[in-house]
Amino acid sequence: MKRSHPVGIVLLAAVFFGMVGQAGARTIDLGAISGPITFSIHHDKLVKPFNDQYLFTVDPGTTLDFSAFVSTGYSNRFWILDMDGTLSDTSGVIVNGDAVTNILPGAGFPDRDVTFPSTLLGPGDYVLAIFGTPSRAFPGPTSSYSGDIKFCSGGVCTSPATTPLPASLPLMLAALAGLALAATRRAAMVA
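Now predict its structure.
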């Protein structure tokens, strides 16, 4: 039996549009955590409000430091200006994420970061919730976020994404580039 093209096109369109723009609640089970580990997380194609739930269990007899960082990255096409998060156990919210909107200097593009400070967790069931409402400058682009969830033992978890660079770094790099250019010109004049 030969299928007609319109049916195939309709099915293909349904699959495509079903994948693009999926949002709402998403549950990701990270499993039982018994030692140090880092999970990289990412959610793209966001066009509707979302509430992602990352579930995990800290094994009995285990104590771990937890930290997390997620970011939308800078964009002039999409943003999630209200993205935030919570860490909860069976009794309720134990840590609220520290959400900050940053603006790219000179360009005005927003970025939204949510940081969870190092928190000591004992055995039990936990839920890290990341939620927000995506926006876009025009039809087409979709929003996304990515980051890390870290579990450490024997110390405080820190995230490289939250380690600030010196404010003078651009000035130092410009000075080094100028010195390299001057040395190159001097070498060319001597030769």
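The chain has one domain: 21-190.
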